[in-house]
Amino acid sequence: NAGVMQNPRHLVRRRGQEARLRCSPMKGHSHVYWYRQLPEEGLKFMVYLQKENIIDESGMPKERFSAEFPKEGPSILRIQQVVRGDSAAYFCASSPGRENTGELFFGEGSRLTVL
Amino acid sequence: TQLLEQSPQFLSIQEGENLTVYCNSSSVFSSLQWYRQEPGEGPVLLVTVVTGGEVKKLKRLTFQFGDARKDSSLHITAAQPGDTGLYLCAGGLRGNTPLVFGKGTRLSVIA
User: Fold this and answer.
1) What pLDDT band is residue A23 in, cutting at 50, 70 and 90?
2) Hey, is the C-beta of B102 within 8 angstroms of any chain A C-beta?
């Protein structure tokens, strides 16, 4: 499967725990985006990364949230001390790079439930 | 403030009917995409339009980008139950800036 891979598909955490969501982009793609989706809502941009660099984190809360895309391995979205309001579907998308017209290829999402 | 407004928010129609959904903004976009998302899945790209006035056809789906590149429409002819899903429009403002999404139109086609 050469598509965007996200894991876990479902994650349950209690308030105060940490959530780690992983994303492996499509082969040959060097740009990764994280979006959050609430029920009956569209996708809200969180962060845009290239290998080892955060390009745009304007949509990510300043506290408790962090993201990385290391030289080797998947991109990780980390949420510390989760609260109930963090419950959502988190989607990762990738794109090939500067030559594209903004088209994104999405993974199937990670659904976080905070109890 | 929602940069891209989609209408209608919900649409329920009978199989065989035609429909149009809209995506509007006061901003100019360098490109605009339409995605379809099914429950429990990620959005899947349907089409990209980049030129003002551009019309693209994908089988029974017709996409149009407004002349001023501020709005777009999606028309489905003879809708089928398999067309059921959440239709999202997304715009690129410039370069590699992240796509901005509308809230979507949730379409239900009843057999």
Assistant:
1) very high
2) yes
